Amino acid sequence: MQLTPTFPEQNISIARVGVIGGGQLAWMMAGEAPSLGLELVVQTPNESDPASPFAAETVLGAIDDATATAQLAKSCQVITFENEFVDLPELAKLERQGVCFRPALKTLEPLLDKYMQRCFLRELGLPVPEFFTLDPGEPIPEVEFPIVMKARRHGYDGQGTAILKDRESLEKTWERWGYPPVILEAFVPFDRELAAIAARNSAGEIAIYPIVETQQEEQVCRRVLAPAEIAPSIVLECEAIARTLLERTQAIGIFGIELFLTPNGKVWVNEIAPRTHNSGHFSLDACRTSQFEQHLRAVSDRPLGSPELLYPGAVMVNLLGYESARDDYCDKRRQLAEIPNARVRWYGKSESRPGRKLGHVTIPLNAPDFQLRKLGLEMAKTVEAIWYG
């Protein structure tokens, strides 16, 4: 099927952005689009998905349904991504017909498979742990424990990642996953986990948000502290990693870069997400330009906005499902909204299940630098006592 989309390269102002995915990331993008004079068209499996009611148009289809993406392309001038669960070979057929994807498929290609991503990062000279691949049917080699096992594709929010302490747990976990292709990598004994959110537009302009500390439980992000309480030299190193990655991939859009910081001050790259990222949600209520507005600016050929914090700091707490239920938790949301200066973002998902991201709370922090982390953790405890208590 031959398409006749409108190209950004034709110097026609971009007014409609297509998004493959209709979850909370697309929902937050949809909230920022009107201020830029943009409309969003989303491709998503269900009309009840969070972004669908707020989109100018919805194309119903699975994330990896290229036929639905072809339909999406008829309604917008550029297409971007909410997640990485796409079928690149099928999208490449559309790209050859003139569909504009941002980030470009050549940018995504080395990043979607975790083994290929690790190889690519190593080629760039970025610091990554030792790693190797393990394919179905191969015997498990002798390895040092603890070790980290990751599914090469489709892992998210702790799914497809396991920290394993012995050979028996490795064998049982791989069996439970169904023996997919995986990578095994050396466990990094980190002191803190960090993240860099960075954007690049087609003019080569780059904006990097304050480096943040992320705190995980069971490999799922629970809270984010902005800015991270780290030495200026570590900040510069994290920013340099982000800049190298965006420039070498010729990225257009926002990237989330997950990092480890060891007790001796060594920074390691954990994973790259070529999209808006959970660790940047604080920017929606605490930065001059949110990561969602910034991503739309980048993919629609607009100048990037300032990523600076509007307050000395901020803490973001994820509201994770803790039960299987159909509940909008109105009473708990009301209690959270009563916390001074708290901003509650509820994603409107139809049902809860353990570990599912249902919303988040951001609280600005006003304190001297040396007290920000302590205050942020105290506020996070307040939020979590209401939500999980």
Give a short summary of the structure.
The chain is an alpha+beta fold. The chain is 28% helix and 25% strand. A hairpin with a 2-residue loop joins β11 and β12 (220-226).
Describe the structure.
The chain is of the alpha+beta class and 389 residues long. It folds into three domains: 8-101, 3-Layer(aba) Sandwich (Rossmann fold); 130-186, ATP-grasp fold, A domain (Dna Ligase, domain 1); 192-388, ATP-grasp fold, B domain (D-amino Acid Aminotransferase, Chain A, domain 1), CATH 3.30.470. The protein is built from eleven helices and 17 strands. The longest helix is centred in the C-terminal third of the chain and has 20 residues, at 369-388. The radius of gyration is 21 Å and the shape is globular.
